[in-house]
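Hey team,

Filing this mostly as a record. A colleague (T.K.) asked me to run one chain through the structure pipeline before their review meeting, and I want the input and output archived in the tracker in case anyone asks later how it was produced. No errors, nothing strange. Just documentation.

Input sequence:
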Amino acid sequence: MKDNLHKTEWSFKEFAVMNGYKPASVRKLIERGKLPAEYEVVEYSSQKKAIRLKPAFASRVKQEAEPAPEAQYTDEEKQIGYTRLRILQLWQQFRADADKAKDADFTFCYNYNELTSWPELKLYVDSIAIKTLYRWNDAYKLSGLAGIMPAWNLSRSTTITDVEKELLLKYYLKPNKPRIEECIRFASAEMETLGIEPKSGRTYRRFIERYTEINYPKVLLSREGYKSFNDKTIPDVQRDLSLIEAGDCVVMDGHVLDFEILNPVTGRQQRMMMVMASDMRSGMPLGWEIMPTENTWAVANALRRAIMTLGFKPRVVYLDNGRAFRSNAFSGGKKTHNKSGEIYLSADETRVTGAIERLGIKVSFAQPYHGQSKPIEKDFRIFAELERTMLTYVGNTIANKPARMHRNEKMHKQAYNAQIEAGGVITLEFAHERISAFFADMINREIKTGQFAGVTRYQNFADSLRRVFAQPDYPQRVVSLHELNDLMMAEEIRTLHKNGINFLNNTYWNNEFFNLKKGLRLKIRYDIFDRERVLIYDLKGAFMFEAQARERVHPMARLLGTDEQLKQLQDAIAERKELVKPVVKAVKTMLNKGADLDETKRVMAAKSSGKLAEAPEPQKPAIDPYEVLERMRLTPEEEIQLRERSRKYAV
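Output structure:
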């Protein structure tokens, strides 16, 4: 059976069947001059007219080989065509078995549409009408299976001219992302000014949608920019993480927390920056730091904690391209210039640079504006689970804001304020505790996809560590805590008082403070995650010693406290006495040396005059401080009697 694929001339009825039109619609197209540009009307007589391809198009059709049906249609389109053919066969059989063909047509359509007599066919052809059956039948007789294939197959030539396409894409490929109907309206208006009769909006919409399907990268780059184009179209380079071991590469990146934390300096709640370090192979969180803003010292402290967790130095630190990460402190970054154009480094950056260089760690930076190159980004998406459980959660997007942040939500705002006033404010310490607990749970979850699917992060990390410990260079990678001191946070300058140094509601003391002048200005370096100690430096940066947080004693330990509290008080008093003893002894020695010097002068003067005067008797000091302290000390029996009397009077 000859089909329409290589015909060049058709009757009006054949042309209508081929294109899915009604014969009357074909005549209206001809009268309005809207016949596609490649066709023309041939008039053989007043009664005989036909539509044929113009010579240029006809010669092209004759030269082309007939394509196979598989090359013309998609699997879905072919399935629809086969379903239509099966419906035609069932319809013809149904008409042959019926008494009246007209009644058979109605009954067949009713059974198909309402009674779902053939449910397997309705998956591809939802409903049919009597006129549809007759149109399919005529098309099948005329062109075979190709005649009943879906008419919306866009692999065939379109009726839209190149000028129309150019005008549509001119408005569609804009960075302001105009809607399709707007593009069609603007393009149609410009077509009318050029004398081109616009086609239907549905035709233009199909063209734009089809163009987007087969030119998706161009559309994304034009309408959404390079980042969207990169994230959605360019394939990623797949890393083989089995080629590295745990601790070989530490990945670091910053994340603005989606909940508010109380700033200890300003006393206000704000979203803070968490800098996190994780192992590239296993995704194991190794260390983190929370700061009001991302800065060099937050990155340095997070790296320090990661190294402390590992117990040895990583070979490479893989950093983000942000300002804090890309600073001179981590080498290779953009240098800073002063007004005279000279390159300089701040004191903090210089010290951190030296610390990293001394540790022998190599630094690598991620590709700018390319989230796929940073494996830690997916951990932050998992971390959002914890953020949503926080009372002060503010949402990661405008659409995900909690109800209390919407307009006129008085009830939710009142409930939130009541919880905050009742002590619901999130402090830095509380945030660290919750994050630590969440990571402890996360590392024991089974990995569902990826190269290490089926095991947990902790199992992957622990298995790899066994191989790291067996490596010959492992002893050289072990690092001491002292080597990491230069990677602590930026120092604070504090004043030394009688009781030590006050910092973060704690008092830090070392017995060396006793010999230093009070009011002396000293530098301290600290880890906010470890409040038990601070490191003491002089103003030149030379390390002096470590100070510990002082413990407070019971105010009435002798009378109201427990035995343990009493012992704590006695130890504190004994420590004070131990501080006093050497000072008192040294001063007494110095005073005695001064008396001996006066006696020597007197003797020498007497010898020179020939008269040796009698030496005056030495006078004892009016008060001996050491003897006073000894007399103040109670015997154990006296302490027991004193406690019993106090309890008796209390009863």
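Quick notes for T.K.: The first strand starts at residue 9 and ends at 10. The chain has five domains: 9-130, 162-232, 242-390+426-469, 491-549, 557-612+622-650.
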